[in-house]
Amino acid sequence: MSQQETIKNDALIQSVNDLENDAVRLIQYVLNHISGSDIVIASSYSAEDVVLIDLFSQQFPGITVLAIDTGRLPEETYQIAETINNRMNITLKWLFPAKEDVESLLQQQGNFGFKKNLEARHNCCGVRKVKVLRKGLEGYKAWATGQRREQSVTRSALKTAERETHFAPDLKINPLATWTQKQIWDHIKERGLPVHALYSGGYTSIGCAPCTRPITPGDHERAGRWWWEDPENKECGLHQSPHMGGTQ
After folding, report:
1. What span, in angstroms and rounded, lies between the C-alpha atoms of 42 and 90?
2. 191: how many CB neighbours lie within 10 A of its CB?
3. Among residues 197, 219, 157, 125, which one has the least CA distance to residue 20?
4. Alpha carbon of 86 to those of 2, 20, 79, 80, 90: distances in Å?
5. Each residue's pLDDT tens digit, 58-100
6. pLDDT tens digits for 206-231?
7. SS3 annotation, the chain
8. Is 211 labeled as catalytic in the residue annotation?
9. pLDDT in tens, 117-168
10. Residue 3 predicted with pLDDT over 60
């Protein structure tokens, strides 16, 4: 990236963060400065991602949505992906890990080796998610996520626009950073949006089938993700966190 582009992005980041309490204006501002064809949404089809896709597609019909097929997704994820793709004006692109990478991972760790320790779990996420997304983001100028500060300790300092040092493009937009869980579900209800079927079964976060389970009353909303790990480690590597000491 040239020095001029860096300065331009720094100014955009500051302006976007100033709009953190108005997701619609924030998205409009971004689209006024970066072509919608140069922006992608990274989606796991969580409730947040459905809201994000809805907001972006209203402003830029045909927005590209990247979905990673890790090889271990629950069936309900494919169902909601197809529903969203048929209902909203988007361009859906499925991303897949390289066959040889998955084969090597399984030979080294087995099917459930990721539960052995944090390093093994990061290896699995690295092969099935991080490496895949890194390749999928090539050629774009910015990417957007449905992350929220309220979701976990690893996201409590999240900004609506930030630099990601381990991905290119390094410009990441998080329009829903300040939203509460109630705001997400109010928007879904107001707009009549479809949601992932697992939410009706007690799930409050969406991920790979072996790494995600329903929560019990009183649990934090991401308690069902990697439940055998400490809260400060509950990221897959797609996002940086100051609580995790940087890139994971």
Report:
1. 13
2. 12
3. 157
4. 39, 30, 11, 10, 9
5. 999 999 999 999 999 999 999 999 999 999 999 999 999 999 9
6. 999 999 999 998 888 888 888 888 77
7. CCHHHHHHHHHHHHHHHHCCCCHHHHHHHHHHHCCHHHEEEEECCCHHHHHHHHHHHHHCCCEEEEEECCCCCCHHHHHHHHHHHHHCCEEEEEECCCHHHHHHHHHHHCCCHHHCCHHHHHHHHHHHHHHHHHHHCCCCCEEECCCCHHHCHHHCCCCCEEECCCCCCCEEECCCCCCCHHHHHHHHHHHCCCCCHHHHHCCCCCCCHHHECCCCCCCCCCCCECCCCCHHHCCCCCCCEHHHCECC
8. no
9. 999 999 999 999 999 999 999 999 999 999 999 887 878 889 999 987 777 8
10. no
Q: What does R_g of the chain's alpha carbons equal in angstroms?
A: 17
Q: For residue 59, how far is the Cα from the chain centroid?
A: 20
Residue pointed to by tokens 């976990």 = 152
Superfamily classification of domain 3-237+239-243: HUPs (3.40.50.620)
The model carries a pTM of: 0.89
Tokens of 50: 């459905």
Token pair, residue 128, equals 């099935």
| Pairing outcome for strands 39-43 and 142-144 | parallel
Count, residues in the chain: 248
For residue 184, the tally of other CB atoms under 10 A from its CB is 21
Active-site pick, 125, 208, 211, 236: 236
Residue 54 bridge partners (DSSP): none
Rounded to an integer, what distance in angstroms lies between the CA atom of residue 129 and that of residue 12? 28
